[in-house]
Input
Amino acid sequence: MIRNIAANVQAFTSNAFLVDGDRTVLVDTGSNFDAVSRVEEAVGDLDAVIVTHTHPDHVGTLDAVTEAFDVEAFGFDPDQPGVDVGIEDEAVVTIGDDDYRALHTPGHKDDHLCFYSESADILFAGDLVFQNGSFGRTDLEEGDRAALIQSIDRVLDAVDEDLREMHVGHGPSVTTNPYHDIELASQAARIR
Output
């Protein structure tokens, strides 16, 4: 089961997806809310935290979560504060009951990762793409529009056209034809 523990938070935060199963994982921790109590209420304990990238809205509660559950945080760059273990491009990680391939997708931030499970037909897209063809900002430090376009195209090539769910860093998850939303983002990112 995948649930957004940041749902209905009124402060600025990213989504934070709790995935329970064989390996209960929190994908991004969000910020400006009590993520620890929400995890405790939902599942009681965690096995790991995985971060899509280290912008403050995605990792604001990272230290509190890792300390409360005595777990490690996994992300692309272990030199970033709070990231304990590096995940290399193309590495396979278990989230819940499924294996996900990590895709290094810079453009929004240099350490950005997406996670795709072919068997589950699910993509965790972080801030790369969103509902209705929106895409990650490139006006922040480390933002690069050309790199973002390459990353979106890489994800488009990697995922199946029958992608079932796309869980994004902000806004609602996409459960109706998410592949189309990625296609739209690829087109929209090219328009200046």
In short: The chain is about 25% helix and 20% strand. The chain has one domain: 2-189. The longest helix spans residues 145-158. The longest strand covers residues 98-104.
